[in-house]
């Protein structure tokens, strides 16, 4: 077991019917680091986050949190300090920005003065939202909605933030802003961030470590800069594409 890991998957397998989404996967997340999980479509990236959070049960292996083996369940993971921000932002469009953010605190058991104080603290991290708190979330831009989803996640005071494709559908300039905000939250709050991302070049610039998945297995793991400078991404991504072209 990794000495200072907050959470890890050990020999983890997940099956969907007869298909292996993950097979004998080992992933560990240390306190205060940004870890990116990459790979082609269908490689099992999102399943890693869902297995850590308890959305997808393991068919084999274990989830270890702060040194103890657990059976993760989403409502319990929030109390443990693990928050999942799903793909597609998922804001409540009819609710205001403030109401959306508030839900994150209520789910974590905050109320009254503690809740109000936490909303103020979180909103301070997202200046772009300050003058939009009374607006319906449904009319915000994609980038603003992603900021709302991040703010809502931070209301629970997490130790670990699990982000599933936060840049999906966003313009390049907004992607840069979102990743800079994630890096800022990591530095100022000291919380660990695990990101499933297809926007490889941008995210490797802010990540500490990276896992590359291929067909449900870990193809490579290491320092983000070393992964970025190696040929593993080319082999995993382009190798797969070349095979598909050949069989087409």
TrEMBL record:
Task: Name the keywords, alphabetized.
Answer: Amino-acid transport, ATP-binding, Nucleotide-binding, Transport
* InterPro entries per the UniProt record, alphabetical: AAA+_ATPase, ABC_transporter-like_ATP-bd, ABC_transporter-like_CS, BCAA_Transport_ATP-bd_LivF, P-loop_NTPase
Q: Which domain of life is it from?
A: Bacteria
Q: Which GO terms describe its biological process?
A: L-amino acid transport
Residue ranges of domain ABC transporter in the record:
7-240
According to the UniProt entry, its GO molecular function terms are:
ATP binding; ATP hydrolysis activity; branched-chain amino acid transmembrane transporter activity
Family to which the UniProt record says this protein belongs: Belongs to the ABC transporter superfamily.
Q: What is this protein called?
A: Amino acid/amide ABC transporter ATP-binding protein 2, HAAT family
Its source organism is: Candidatus Wolfebacteria bacterium GW2011_GWE2_44_13
């Amino acid at each position: 077991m990794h000495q200072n890991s907050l959470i890890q998957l050990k020999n983890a397998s997940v099956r969907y019917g007869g298909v292996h989404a993950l097979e004998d996967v080992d992933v560990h997340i240390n306190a205060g680091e940004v870890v990116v999980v990459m790979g082609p479509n269908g490689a099992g990236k999102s399943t890693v986050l869902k297995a850590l959070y308890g959305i997808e049960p393991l068919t084999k292996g274990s989830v270890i949190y702060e040194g103890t083996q657990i059976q993760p369940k989403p409502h319990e993971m929030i109390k443990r300090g693990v928050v999942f921000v799903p793909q597609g932002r998922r804001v409540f469009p009819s609710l205001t920005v403030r109401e959306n953010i508030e839900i994150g605190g209520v789910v974590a058991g905050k109320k009254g003065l503690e809740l109000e104080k936490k909303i103020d603290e979180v909103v301070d991290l997202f200046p772009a939202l300050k003058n939009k708190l009374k607006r319906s979330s449904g009319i915000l831009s994609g980038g603003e909605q992603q900021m709302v989803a991040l703010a809502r996640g931070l209301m629970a005071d997490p130790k670990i933030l699990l982000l599933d494709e936060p840049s999906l559908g966003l313009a390049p300039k907004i992607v840069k802003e979102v990743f800079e905000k994630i890096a800022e939250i990591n530095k100022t709050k000291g919380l660990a961030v695990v990101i499933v991302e297809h926007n490889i070049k941008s995210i490797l610039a802010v990540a500490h470590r990276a896992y590359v998945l291929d067909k449900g297995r870990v193809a490579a793991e290491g320092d983000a800069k070393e992964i970025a400078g190696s040929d593993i991404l080319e082999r995993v991504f382009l190798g797969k594409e070349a095979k598909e072209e050949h069989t087409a």
